[in-house]
Amino acid sequence: MAETRWLDDEEQHAWRSYLRMNKLLEAALARELQADSQLSLPDFEVLVHLTDVPDARLRVSALARSLQWEKSRLSHQIARMARRGLVTREECPDDGRGAFVVVTPDGRRAIEEAAPPHVETVRQLFFDVLTDDDVKALTVLSERVLDRLDTHTP
């Protein structure tokens, strides 16, 4: 059995700071989004993924993959959003088992109204405290870790 490679003090500080920043930033973004638009962060994520594709529609399985969510979580989220008129679920005519999630006009309006204040909050809480070099370094670091995660098999 391999010996544990414990984090040194600097690594531990960096790791814990990253975790704390991530948790606090997500909570602040969720609070601001809810206050500004009555959308939850999961509502917003679903709408972003749907409005990023040409027909504003995705198969349930493709949406779950792109969000990195379990299908059951997505199913509950879609049901909540459908009750509020933000999305609809349509059966796939080519495949009786498949279904699409489609943005409604109310859903499109909701994200178009929510996006400007949300991006301003992202800018105020995150980008405004970073230099151009920080953003470039963050991009390099994020892509390096994402590449590792893409190839990681537990």
UniProtKB/TrEMBL annotation:
Residues 11-147 form the HTH marR-type domain. GO terms for biological process: response to stress. InterPro entries: HTH_MarR-typ (IPR000835), MarR/SlyA-like (IPR039422), WH-like_DNA-bd_sf (IPR036388), WH_DNA-bd_sf (IPR036390). One of its GO terms (molecular function) is DNA-binding transcription factor activity. Pfam families: MarR_2. SMART domains: HTH_MARR. This is MarR family transcriptional regulator. It comes from Haloactinopolyspora alba. The lineage of its organism: Bacteria, Bacillati, Actinomycetota, Actinomycetes, Jiangellales.
